[in-house]
Specification:
The protein is mainly alpha-helical. It has seven helices and three strands; from the N terminus they run αβββαααααα. It is globular.
């Protein structure tokens, strides 16, 4: 049996800061008892789960998983959010935008940051054409960045706006 990748787990993060970050988007971080199944988890095991506005995680859930699922919630349409239970759905481009957004959100969690998130995403097995999360983010993610900008989730400077995607159509005029 091989050991799990050494990634930052929820128990090693500032959970109050993380809960406050999620709260700004209308989400509630809900901790699950160690060893129990995580409600709404798409992948099972220790991966974060979504049901409605609740993001479920255990203390052994990877921090990148929490941010990834939070980013799905932020990026989905209100219609999908209303019926959310486990499967965030979305297009391939939206999935790329989710990955991009989770990197930006990592910078807002004390002790996490994008450099650690890049490392954790690579260790966990995220795969990108350029071979690493950092290389993708810095050199091959313009489509994801444009998608986030189009839907009003980041501003022209690449900063998160704190807004949820509000429709299937484009966001503010650019």
């Amino acid at each position: 049996m091989t050991a799990a990748p050494a990634v930052l787990l929820l128990n090693a993060t500032d959970r109050v800061a993380l809960a406050l970050l999620l709260g700004r988007y209308g989400m509630q971080l809900t901790l699950v008892v160690p060893g129990d199944a995580i409600p709404g988890s798409y992948w099972g095991h220790g991966e974060a789960g979504l049901r409605g506005e609740r993001l479920y995680a255990r203390l052994d859930t990877p921090a990148h998983s929490v941010l990834h699922e939070a980013s799905h919630y932020i990026c989905m349409t209100p219609e999908r959010r209303a019926g959310l239970d486990r499967d965030a759905g979305g297009t391939d481009l939206e999935e790329s935008a989710v990955c991009y957004l989770q990197v930006l959100l990592a910078d807002q969690v004390p002790g996490l940051g994008r450099a650690r998130l890049f490392s954790d995403m690579d260790a966990w097995g995220y795969s990108f054409r350029l071979g690493s999360t950092r290389a993708w983010f810095e050199g091959d993610a313009s489509d994801a960045r444009d998608w986030l900008l189009q839907h009003g989730l980041i501003d022209a400077a690449g900063r998160v706006t704190g807004e949820l995607r509000n429709s299937a159509s484009a966001g503010p005029a650019m």
